[in-house]
Amino acid sequence: MDAGIICKDDGSYTVVRIPNEESSSNMLELEIFSSETGTWTEFNFSCQVRNYSRSNHKRLYSTISYNGILHWAADKQIFAYDPYRSTDQCYSMELPKCSERLERYNLAICCGRLCCFAGGESLRLWELTNYESGKWNLKHQRNLSEICSVHARLHELFGSDVTICFRPLAMHPFNWDTVYGSCGSRLISYNLRTGISNLIDYGLIPAALHPFILPPWPTMIPQPSWGPDDI
């Protein structure tokens, strides 16, 4: 079971739980919680996606909210669901095409744009430049073996003769060049442009990272609707 949350400007939110167990059914089952009603509702409907099967969700990855719509990647597709508009419809778009076999796709939001990154022999980062047509633009590509080899501290921890694989986990929300991931049991940040890495955490790390952006503080007070002549 995976879950995503959509927050609205008025403070209300919706939580969507998505099953990821293997099944041959083409019925999408979602459990939705609304903060406005305080209750859970279950929806079952046929997914409007070509060749859809719940067995695709055995490889369910990051779930994010983009423009008020929940998006998640499963195998070679991105699924999109809007609980405020059509509770019985789900749409999809193709993930970026790549000749290299990529082990894991992750969705993220950087600088207000939907992006996707994946790792195989190399780490690739794409930006979605056109939501309607599903057009992707490759922004970065780095050999994964280079990422771990540049950090001397990792060699001290694991030994220079130990091969450590980098697994990308998250993007920096405001910097296209910075990605976060794990090397062994350590969390590092890596600059895709300069090749500089930084060790962030010395302990065990989770299987996934979920970046949250705190709203500006103090909260801006709306300007009054009356003019100076009305005072």
Automatic annotation (TrEMBL):
The F-box protein At3g26010-like beta-propeller domain, residue ranges: 12-195
Domain of life: Eukaryota
Name of the molecule in the record: F-box protein At3g26010-like beta-propeller domain-containing protein
Coiled-coil intervals: none
Pfam families: b-prop_At3g26010-like
Naturally occurring in which organism (per UniProt): Salix purpurea (Purple osier willow)
